[in-house]
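Entry 14. Structure prediction run on the chain below.
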Amino acid sequence: MRYVRIHKEGRLILITLTLVIFFLNLYICTHFTFGIVPIINIIVSALLLSFFAYFFRNPPRKVYIDDPSLVVAPADGTIVVVEPTDELEYFGDKRIQVSIFMSVFNVHANWYPVKGTVLKSTHHSGRHMAAFLPKSSTENERSTVIIESEGKTQILVRQIAGALARRIVTYAHAGKKCHLNEHLGFIKFGSRVDLYFPLDTEIFVTVGESTTGNETIIARLNED
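Output returned:
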């Protein structure tokens, strides 16, 4: 029998929401035995619970890759940027930027895109403008994770909060050995994930293409 798995970041929210809805329904059913009010309340309650359960869903995904130079999409969403960009926060030079925009209807768990070692993980406070805007990469609240692959190539993964996203959760920390099929973090309510690669990286995705986190191959690192 299949069932919906809920991500750990959403369990407390769903429990709290369920309790609030339960007592609200109890009150309304006590004071409005008949009429349209109880019906509307039941419909709204069901929609709210369904949406939050859907948003915090945690589908089991496993990818098996023999080539360690391949990079897997860290998030569900749509490719909104593929271009050379000056990355000034960590590398201080030009890199290929690949950005994935996540709507509220995408799975919001984030996965490690390669197997390797986390060199650095930093959180930055900031604004909450729409995540699809270019300035969101440097001005919004964000977390920056630097990963060194097994082939000694460094890539940057940046989780970016959006207009609705108010909390970024990052499990990465310096010195951690990271693997595919492992969650890097979670972003709540609409967001974006940026990746920065060396210029000689082979990119397999284009703007407008959809990605599936921990499944879609988005790039190959030049690790010869």
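The chain has a mean pLDDT of 85.
Filed with the rest of this week's runs.
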